[in-house]
């Protein structure tokens, strides 16, 4: 019976440095050859998926934390920011002098001023500096209808409460702490989730939650662990993810993904270090 295998990227397919075990590549290819469908399942936008990951070969992707679903060559779901909301956020961030960039499936876009400000940030400070594409100077160049989320660096006087009050219809996520305040933030549409995306994908495939194997390593994977028939946490995963999973495999660097595929009979046994 065909299984739909959903794979997180960081900590599942690759280690924190982006290294992909050879057995992972072998296992993914073998699972697909056996008739299973293997999908990326990530909070990243499609543009953020590194080339070596894509080259493993997949049947599609759930990206943006569930705002985009593609199966084969067909986009079956995409929910970017509404154009009116996107324009309001851009204008607000400009007024507050907060450097920002737009995350789309085509790339990271910013005006020249934000590009200069963001590229001055230390490389260790979680920003995709080299991928920022400056747009034209026209004030309306950043007004778009294909934006998955808007990422920004908090200006000195900005607060989380202020952003939430300004945009109650969007989901605010923050990361990085400096002097007790968040460094980065992102705004995306509310009511987007991997769970909704999985249900949409399964409807398209004419399959059910009983046909799904989800593999991840973080607390953000727990809702899918609880939703789907079979869940696996990597040995390097968080305590919460391990507690919620049906099975805990070895760490990503110890051929954990290949071990899980073999245990669940998605492929034949995969030799370690192959």
CATH class of the largest domain: Alpha Beta
The CATH topology assignment of the largest domain is: Rossmann fold
- CATH superfamily grouping of the largest domain: HAD superfamily/HAD-like
Mean pLDDT: 90
Spell out the helices and strands N to C.
EHEHEEEHEEHEEHEEHEHEHEH
In the sheet with the most strands, the strands line up as 5-4-3-2-1-12-13-14
Q: What is the rounded distance between the termini?
A: 27 Å
Which descriptor suits the 3D outline?
globular
CATH architecture heading of the largest domain? 3-Layer(aba) Sandwich
Descriptive terms for the model:
single chain; 274 residues; alpha/beta; Rossmann fold; Hypothetical Protein, Haloacid Dehalogenase-like Hydrolase, Chain: A, domain 2; 2 domains; eight-stranded mixed sheet; six-stranded mixed sheet; 9 helices; 14 strands; 28% helix; 26% strand
